């Protein structure tokens, strides 16, 4: 199991970024809410980042944060395949 996180816009939007998770290479990124076993309740802050509490929890548990730009362009997959 891989433990990867990334801040991405929800599909079909260009708005605020939401934490997305992936636990296996080749699988699509999914919003953190699709993983109730890992998700933490969001902080009650107006206009706060969706998934920040989960990000903090998983970061402390050793998950890796990938740069949004690389994930959006697919360059992270190319780097993994060539390594």
Task: Please describe the topology of this protein.
Elements: E1 4-9, E2 17-22, E3 30-31, H1 52-60, E4 64-65, H2 68-73, H3 75-82
Parallel strand pairs: 1-4
Antiparallel strand pairs: 1-2, 2-3
Overall pLDDT metric? 87
**Beta strand %:** 15-25%
What's the shape?
globular
Radius of gyration: 13 Å
Helicity range? 25-40%
Strand line-up across the major sheet: 3-2-1-4
Give the low-pLDDT segments. 78-83
The separation of the N and C termini measures: 18 Å
- Give the oligomer, counting copies of the same chain as homo and different chains as hetero: single chain
Class by alpha and beta content: alpha+beta
User: Can you tell me the number of structural domains?
Assistant: 1
Number of strands: 4
Give a short account of the largest sheet.
4 strands, mixed
Order of helices and strands: EEEHEHH
Number of helices: 3
Can you give keywords for this protein?
83 residues; alpha+beta; four-stranded mixed beta sheet; 3 helices; 28% helix
Question: What would you note in describing this structure?
Answer:
Strands 3-2-1-4 form a four-stranded mixed sheet. By secondary structure, it is an alpha+beta fold. The protein is globular and about 35 Å long. The protein is built from three helices and four strands. Residues 78-83 have low confidence and may be disordered. Helices cover 28% and strands 19% of the residues.
């Amino acid at each position: 199991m891989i433990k990867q996180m990334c801040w991405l816009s929800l599909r079909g939007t260009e708005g605020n970024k939401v934490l997305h998770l992936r636990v296996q290479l080749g699988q699509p990124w999914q919003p953190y809410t699709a993983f109730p076993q890992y998700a933490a309740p969001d902080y009650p802050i107006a206009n706060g980042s969706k998934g920040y509490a989960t990000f903090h929890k998983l970061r402390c548990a050793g998950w890796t944060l990938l740069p949004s730009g690389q994930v959006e362009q697919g360059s992270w997959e190319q780097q993994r395949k060539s390594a």
